[in-house]
Write a structure and sequence with these properties.
Elements: H1 4-8, E1 12-16, H2 21-32, E2 36-41, E3 60-64, E4 83-86, H3 93-98, H4 100-121, E5 126-132, H5 159-177, E6 182-188, E7 191-192, H6 203-212, E8 217-220, E9 226-228, E10 230-231, H7 232-244, E11 252-255, E12 260-262, H8 263-274, E13 282-285, H9 300-306, H10 314-328
Parallel strand pairs: 1-2, 1-4, 2-3, 4-5, 5-6, 6-11, 7-10, 8-13
Antiparallel strand pairs: 9-12
Helix pairs in contact: 2-7, 4-5, 6-8, 6-10, 8-10
């Protein structure tokens, strides 16, 4: 297997959602491996400050555009793409519920338009589609394995994201099986780290922001629901390993950290790092509709196929994330 440096050197990589939390880290890491990166984002939920550390790199080209549109409307003529990392989409429940139409369109029509474009213009390109653990819904098996079909409410408040990602997977499957394209799907579990938007409503940035503002921690339900948290550098490594995998067409792989914590435990972990000598205070609120009760990835496939496992412990990742919040506000 080629090293990631060997694989990405001189490749042209198209990253959609390049100004997003994960997309910006993918873009920066591909540049470090010697790739030429074309980043596309419309800043619906992406942030300009996420591009600051690499936007002056001569191998980085940024295009402000909506990837729901046909790529011929925003990409340069005659550009040949070697790798597409399709990560454009709101990803946190408050954000995708605030933008439900944009969310289901970018994951469905945006995916279709990109794949149709590549079939015509760069038919040998490798594609990694960003799916999500949300396709498992409120799972009835635990931990979640890739061949589990999920338990999703098709018309619930989260369905604009859950079902759009599931349909996005379908679109990828059709183009891979029937049209012969090289497409891989990554199912991403809860991820955290520097550049995550402190206001996007996900558990870890919410708790860090509340702690830094000396507020009580917002706990939905009784806090017994579980989540598994993967540090962003581990996630990026797994995604790029999937992109570089020889004969990886058609593979769907969970990438996440199997360490399982209750939401209440998570708040307590954050509290110990920021206010170890202050009394812990929680503000318990009603549980949102369709909120999953348990979430934990089975990563045996990633371990066997990609030789991947997470390396950053939660405490170490939280320290880095808290430091970034203090220095940069998220």
């Amino acid at each position: 297997m080629l090293s990631l440096q060997e694989f990405f050197q001189n490749k042209t990589v198209l990253v959609t959602g390049a100004a997003g939390f994960i997309g910006s880290h993918l873009s920066e890491t591909c540049l470090q491996y010697g790739a030429k990166v074309i980043g596309v984002d419309n800043f619906l939920t992406g942030r300009r400050e996420n591009l600051k550390t690499f936007q002056s790199n001569s191998n980085f080209t940024f295009i402000e555009a909506d990837v729901i549109k046909r790529p011929t409307e925003y990409l340069p003529e005659n550009v040949k793409i070697d790798v597409l990392l399709h990560f454009a989409s709101p990803a946190s429940p408050p954000r995708y519920q605030a933008h439900p139409i944009e969310t289901y369109l970018v994951n469905t029509m945006g995916t279709h338009n990109l794949l149709q474009y590549l079939q015509q213009n760069s038919p040998t390109a490798r594609v990694v589609f960003a799916s999500t653990s949300e396709v498992y819904g409120d799972p009835q098996i635990h931990p979640q394995v890739e061949n589990y079909w999920g338990n999703v409410n098709p018309n619930g408040v989260r369905s604009c994201y859950d079902e759009a990602k599931r349909l996005g997977e379908t679109i990828c499957g059709v183009h891979q099986r029937d049209l012969g394209m090289d497409i891989r799907i990554v199912r991403i579990f809860n991820t955290y780290g520097p550049r995550i938007d402190p206001t996007d409503g996900r558990v870890i940035p919410q708790f860090i922001s509340e702690a830094l503002q000396n507020k009580a921690y917002s706990i939905f339900g009784d806090g017994s629901q579980t989540r598994s948290y993967c540090y962003v550098s581990d996630l990026v490594d797994g995604i790029l390993r999937l992109a570089a995998l020889e004969n990886g067409a058609g593979q769907t792989v969970n990438i996440g950290n199997p360490g399982e914590y209750t939401v209440l435990q998570t708040a307590q972990e954050v509290h110990q790092l920021i206010h170890p000598d202050v009394e812990f205070k929680a503000d318990f609120k009603p549980l949102p509709k369709d909120d999953p009760t348990r979430r934990q990835p089975d990563i045996q496939k990633a371990n066997q196929l990609l030789e991947w496992r997470p390396r950053v412990m939660l405490r170490d990742g939280l320290i880095q994330t808290i430091m970034h919040f203090r220095n940069h506000g998220g």
